[in-house]
Specification:
This protein starts with about 25 loop residues before the first strand and ends with a helix. The protein is about 25% helix and about 20% strand. It contains nine helices and 13 strands. The chain has helices at about 70-80, 100-105, 150, 170-180, 215-230, 265-270, 275, 300-315, 325-330; strands at about 25-30, 35, 45, 60-65, 85-90, 110-115, 130, 140, 160-165, 190, 235-240, 240-245, 260-265.
Length: about 325
Amino acid sequence: MFVYKSKSPNTGNYLSKLVKFRDIKTLHIYNGLVHETDDWDFEPVPMQVQWNFFTECASLCQLSVTRLDKKLRRWLNTSVKSVEELLVTEHYSMYDNGLGNFDILELPQLSMLFTREMTISKHPNARGWRGINPESREQIRVDKHNITTLDRLPDNIANLTRLGMCIELENQWVRFSSHLPQLRRLTYLRIDGKSHRSGRYPATSTSLWPGIVKPKEIAKRYIQLMRSECPSLQYVQVKNWAWQITSPMPGVPAREAHVELRELEWEERMGIELFALDSFAPQSGLPGPDDYYEELSEEEELRMDRMVAEVERRIAAGDHNMTDLIEAVQ
């Protein structure tokens, strides 16, 4: 839904006359960019939601929004402590100032978190991220290229049972994996590559195992490694593949080599809310179901890799002529 402040000074909280706020358990609301006039020459601006309208939502469990902006963060920290599931659909870049709202978010009952990110070029002179070491409670400064959403929420992850996030294994795996032992209740995990990245995911260069070069096999090995660090894990999705961890039983520690997996069918994946969400929200800006994905053959994936590499090479050389691209990568 879209929520604007009434133009009439006498209307007040008009929504309270239409909705019983105390009974609301799920709220999906758009708070992304909008054009305030019909003249599209003007830049869109963030939608100004009147969050104080929803202060009486004492039973609110799931909140889905486009962005976690300052006003929303303040409302969550001060007025609504009942939220257990938070879905944020906008694709953030690592230098987006809005990410700072995650740093000071207070949701002690948070059990589900779904966020999206995009790939952008690293700024050579960018300042590092300043945070708190969850173990020593000392301040630390880390390259923003390496941190994940979990670094920004060190005091809100202990109760997570479902987590969906984007990471680049090349540079974020070390910090991401350092949080896995703390996620003692995590049951469902979804890992995606950041949007606007090129090439296959996981990339061959991220393989930690000699001879394992296919993305699907690399994904399986990472899942086995994650399960060895997080015994509560039962279901994991990486990109468009998902597996159930069949052995050992949940909660039982195990080495990577002893973790057994069963790949899920499409229908099984769509039956799991976290896995069914589309990475790109529909026009409403809110979560929507994923579309059926037919896996490409290895030959087709390699051909796509060559095409992306050729496009990047030409752009870097100042050549934007792509008319013979298909023939060039055959």
